[in-house]
Amino acid sequence: MITLISSDKRKFHVLEEVANQSLTIRDVIEDRRGRRRADRIILVTNINSKIPEKVIVYWLRHFLMPEEIAHASMSHKKAEKLKKWEAKFFDTDIDTLNDLILAADSLDIPSLFDGACEKVSDILKNRSAEEVGEISKIENEFTHEEEEEEIPSENAWVWRNEFA
Amino acid sequence: MEEAIDWISSLPDEILTHILSFITTKEAVQTCILSKRWRNTWASVPVLKFEYDNSHLDGNTVEDLKFEQFVDGVLQNRRALLDTVIYDCDFNRSTWKPSMEWLHRVALLRPRVISVDITGADNFECPDSVFSCAILESLNGLSNTTCLVLHLDYSPELQLQWEKDIANCRTFKNLKSLKIISQDIIDDFDLIACFLWHSPALQHLTLMAEIEGDTDEEPRQEVCFQREYLENVTISCYKDDEFARKLVSMLGRYVKTIGNIIII
């Protein structure tokens, strides 16, 4: 059993095999192997307690079938179920997604990182050039000249190309 | 939504580019007008995903031209090496010439995976730079191709790479027809041998020698395998019959029985 401590000092006890899904934690445990029990405590100071909860939930869901996921040997039904579960898991507010991405990045949990990043990419998905332009008007620090001339001419090939 | 874009902007570069790798390249490129932060971000995204539904078109249309300009623009403005390139379009329509040029330019960016959809195509032309890309792990789609046309431009460094690459990561299990167009076919014979080895379904082999090869040079490679049968071999060269006979005898070292041999 290892203990994770979040920035707001909450403790989370997790089976080593489960926490091993974080490559960072796995390496730390490996480095400290054979030492005192106190060394099995890992501080995750850059994230608040809400995130370890979510990360552990994610770990537990994935822990049950790590081999199958890695080798894509899952049955169709199981894969569908996991997909549905993940869609629900990532259907959360932007702040949580942000924290999940940063946590997955620092703890090195590739599948969680990918999942959260893909969810965020939905914001930009299926938008035409005009729509992207609309969004940009809001927080736009380009000068008038840049907007009118430089950027359109530099990237003329982007806007000329409203293909199918 | 503004809030969301604003928030994404605050992420470090490598996370931002990772996020952009989930959307199509067209969508990613459009983010260049979001703000200064985004202006060149798209150029470092490790995945290129070109999506274009051209299956209903006959070719040479305005739409085609726009798409060509777009791909050219993307490839010209890339800032970083690539991980994955996906062409999700009817890639090798016979009227569509730029496809080979794109593959060549993409190969220079050293991707790990090149994925092309050539399901509808009856043949596929592939520049040699694709095979000489040392880092390439997977040519999705290509390993399913039934007909392959290779243009080989002579280069000694590339030559060394070919055999290793093809042997390491590619089995052309559906390849039925292979056409090799080469400046110096004797010199490229190791590659041909490799294909004979890794394409169990191969039936038709066409060798085209574009200029005269050096008939005096002896093949260097040890023969370590021999396939039972190859149905058709077509040899086309400017040289005399003796050169063609020499090619046949070289093929004979790798193939026990050849059904038909046509020399043009």
Automatic annotation (TrEMBL), chain A:
<dbReference type="InterPro" id="IPR016897">
    <property type="entry name" value="SKP1"/>
</dbReference>
<dbReference type="GO" id="GO:0016567">
    <property type="term" value="P:protein ubiquitination"/>
</dbReference>
<feature type="domain" description="SKP1 component POZ">
    <location>
        <begin position="1"/>
        <end position="60"/>
    </location>
</feature>
<feature type="domain" description="SKP1 component dimerisation">
    <location>
        <begin position="111"/>
        <end position="157"/>
    </location>
</feature>
<comment type="function">
    <text>Involved in ubiquitination and subsequent proteasomal degradation of target proteins. Together with CUL1, RBX1 and a F-box protein, it forms a SCF E3 ubiquitin ligase complex. The functional specificity of this complex depends on the type of F-box protein. In the SCF complex, it serves as an adapter that links the F-box protein to CUL1.</text>
</comment>
<comment type="subunit">
    <text>Part of a SCF (SKP1-cullin-F-box) protein ligase complex.</text>
</comment>
<dbReference type="Pfam" id="PF01466">
    <property type="entry name" value="Skp1"/>
</dbReference>
<dbReference type="InterPro" id="IPR036296">
    <property type="entry name" value="SKP1-like_dim_sf"/>
</dbReference>
<comment type="pathway">
    <text>Protein modification; protein ubiquitination.</text>
</comment>
<dbReference type="GO" id="GO:0009867">
    <property type="term" value="P:jasmonic acid mediated signaling pathway"/>
</dbReference>
<dbReference type="InterPro" id="IPR011333">
    <property type="entry name" value="SKP1/BTB/POZ_sf"/>
</dbReference>
<dbReference type="InterPro" id="IPR001232">
    <property type="entry name" value="SKP1-like"/>
</dbReference>
<dbReference type="InterPro" id="IPR016073">
    <property type="entry name" value="Skp1_comp_POZ"/>
</dbReference>
<comment type="similarity">
    <text>Belongs to the SKP1 family.</text>
</comment>
<dbReference type="GO" id="GO:0006511">
    <property type="term" value="P:ubiquitin-dependent protein catabolic process"/>
</dbReference>
<dbReference type="Pfam" id="PF03931">
    <property type="entry name" value="Skp1_POZ"/>
</dbReference>
<dbReference type="InterPro" id="IPR016072">
    <property type="entry name" value="Skp1_comp_dimer"/>
</dbReference>
<keyword id="KW-0833">Ubl conjugation pathway</keyword>
<protein>
    <recommendedName>
        <fullName>SKP1-like protein</fullName>
    </recommendedName>
</protein>
UniProtKB/TrEMBL annotation, chain B:
<dbReference type="InterPro" id="IPR001810">
    <property type="entry name" value="F-box_dom"/>
</dbReference>
<feature type="domain" description="F-box">
    <location>
        <begin position="5"/>
        <end position="40"/>
    </location>
</feature>
<dbReference type="Pfam" id="PF00646">
    <property type="entry name" value="F-box"/>
</dbReference>
<protein>
    <recommendedName>
        <fullName>F-box domain-containing protein</fullName>
    </recommendedName>
</protein>
<dbReference type="InterPro" id="IPR053781">
    <property type="entry name" value="F-box_AtFBL13-like"/>
</dbReference>
<dbReference type="InterPro" id="IPR036047">
    <property type="entry name" value="F-box-like_dom_sf"/>
</dbReference>
<dbReference type="InterPro" id="IPR053197">
    <property type="entry name" value="F-box_SCFL_complex_component"/>
</dbReference>
